[in-house]
Design goal:
This protein is an alpha/beta fold. It has one domain: 3-Layer(aba) Sandwich (Rossmann fold), CATH 3.40.50. It is built from 7 helices and 10 strands. The strands form 2 sheets. It has a 7-stranded parallel sheet, sandwiched between helices. Helix 1 packs across helix 2. The relative contact order is 0.20.
């Protein structure tokens, strides 16, 4: 198995292609089972994809959404909150209410939240996971060395410095000291249970991670490399993020 690669002329085209691909998979799931379950991600890599996805003519009332990860201790009102991000760039823009949206809440007891989400997602087999990969090749907030073995659907993770510097560089925090050191993240094995995985990964700062993910060995020091073992993953790149591929 391997990851299917699509290289577009620019990040807007790449984001649109990822959104349209995901929308097609959602329609197929609804045609088959009457409902669809999806995962949506955050970060600068998802801007272009989400702009298109929210405008797709989908039966949103038949779709249940989950999100990948959230910082521990960051309030929903903080500019870096992933709950806030998804509300502003996805949830509130939909023309009709979702069947359900299960946010990750990092403000309470993290272990209780992990147990709550675990129980819910096990009743909702995922049809489409929209995601990106980090500058350190993390998948969700599973930084290297990632846990490839845990069967837990969500877990509390420690964020490495490279990950925290990425969040700073993208402008979500004013200083590195403000970036949390822990988060709640969907696990690697839970992501791999998704029937289809759509990766949107633009920008030159992701080029080394893309090369390692696609061309290197499967290793937990390059967490996203595990997607080489998934049977239905497509990565959408722009020329900058694809610049190191031969």
């Amino acid at each position: 198995m391997s990851i299917h690669v699509e290289i577009s002329p620019d990040k807007a085209v790449a984001g649109k292609a990822g959104a349209l691909h995901g929308a097609r998979l959602i329609r197929e799931a609804i045609a088959c089972r009457g409902v669809a379950n999806i995962i949506v991600a955050t970060g600068a890599s998802q801007f272009e994809m989400l702009k298109v996805l929210v405008n797709e003519d989908l039966p949103w009332e038949k779709i249940t959404a989950f999100h990948l990860d959230e910082y521990i201790g960051v309030p929903v009102t903080h500019p870096a909150s992933f709950r806030g991000y998804l509300w502003e760039r996805f949830h509130r823009l939909l023309p009709r209410p979702l069947r359900g949206f299960h946010y990750v809440d990092g403000e309470g007891d993290p272990q209780a939240e992990v147990r709550r989400l675990d129980a819910i997602i096990r009743e909702h087999p995922i049809d489409v996971c929209f995601a990106g990969i980090g500058e350190n090749a993390h998948l969700a907030f599973n930084d290297p060395p990632a846990d490839f073995d845990t069967e837990a659907a969500y877990l509390v993770v420690n964020l490495d410095e490279a990950c925290r510097r990425q969040q700073l560089g993208e402008g979500w925090f004013a200083t590195l000291e403000e970036v949390p050191t822990q988060a709640i993240s969907m696990s690697i094995r839970q992501i791999l249970k998704s029937r289809g995985i759509i990766l949107s990964v633009p920008d030159a700062r992701k080029a080394a991670a893309v090369q390692a993910c696609l061309r290197g060995p499967v290793t937990n020091t390059v967490p996203a490399s595990i997607l080489q073992t998934h049977g239905n993953t497509t990565i959408y790149l722009d020329p900058d993020s694809a610049s190191l591929l031969k």
